[in-house]
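name: query_chain
kind: protein
chains: 1
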Amino acid sequence: MISTLRMELRPATRELLRAVIESDEALGELLGVSVAEGWTEFGKAPFEYMLNVLTSDENQDGWVNYFPILKSGNQLIGSGGFKGGPNDEGWVEIGYEIAPAFRNSGLATEFAMSLIDIALEHPEVTGICAHTLAEENASCAVLRKCSFEKVSELIDDEDGAIWRWEWQGN
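structure:
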């Protein structure tokens, strides 16, 4: 477990991912927390994918997902992590989401900064990137606050135009 100012980040385990797939109630019971409405907007498919990744490659432990638990209220408020461990060039990609009721309070920025810190604990990580839809939105603001810079626009098969952001921190 990783602790930030307002959150505890609990790394995904196979057991926790199975609970996500079962129900919010099962996940909340296993984590010992209440679960905020809308804690994930992406449904179960990403968690099924993560479970497959962890089941097939133990080296991915700590590189897929973290559950942010708000300390005040002991409540799961989102999800986020990495799209896997570092690639051959040492890059990792972060992603995060915060339940609607908890947005615009700095929690997404705190969460993203924690993911950066986790990545930087690994000397093999040489770069950190993120992707957003190709439009100004809250995620763009979060990434700027975390010292990311928009470096390119790409076309994604599923999402269409997206922006690539790279961490420019020290």
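note: Residues 37 and 99 are 7 Å apart (CA to CA).
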